[in-house]
Amino acid sequence: MVKRLLGSDGVDLCIETFGDPADPTLLLISGLTASMDWWDEEFCTRLADQERHVIRYDHRDTGESTSSPAGHPSYTGHDLATDTLRVLDACDVTTAHFVGVSAGGAMAQVVAAHHPQRVLTLTLIATSPAGERSSKHPLPRSEPRVAKTFEEPAPDPPWDDRDAVVEYLVEGERPYAGTLGFDAERVRTKATAVVARTVDMAASVANHWLADEDPRDRFCMSDISVPTLVLHGTADPMFPLAHGEALAAEIPGARLVPLAGMGHEVPPPQLWDVVIHEVVEHTG
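Above: the chain sequence. Below: its structure as tokens.
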């Protein structure tokens, strides 16, 4: 594992790489407000052991990457999506297999639609169509327990109290669990690492939601032409399974693999054997 801070277009992005750079590159893209810590080191190592060069990175305002003042992001959603290309350029990687979870999957879709020459394949995890669909049928809404987190957000913790911030992150993840259950201790370990590494936790939690959308990111789902694998939890309370089914239906040639019991999350260890097998086969 190699960790470094990359400077590109005036932005510092913290990355870690696993495996041999001569192998095919997998770029792991986290969801909104999520640093690279949510992609388990062991998960990355197991992919690297399958002759894959794995890159995970901190979005702006997460981990050790460039941070803006809380409440005032100095970037747009377009910048977050195209940071994927800045990471690849800084690593001297021309093309990569994009693996995105939640909003990271939406970012991957944007790049695949607008910069297909950089994307070898897509793997979309726990996400939803980010472009215009051919179908006019609405997709199911989030379950009430998730909707409530947006309608009645938890009060901010004292940001200088690390233990309180860790518990805030743990409880923030709880409503998104599937029927596999919520492993609070595992999430607490992740949250502890996040808090220890993050430049500004207040900015990390708030700023991604405030980043402006950019009309340059608009596309039709049929514009995506790269081979696409959809991995979606059967118990996702944020984007019910119909969202994954819509992705597979809208992207030409896409293949859906339902993940039994998974919620809205980076695949947990119980599913790594299945997920790693599917990703390695897809990116072969």
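The CA atoms of residues 164 and 206 lie 17 Å apart.
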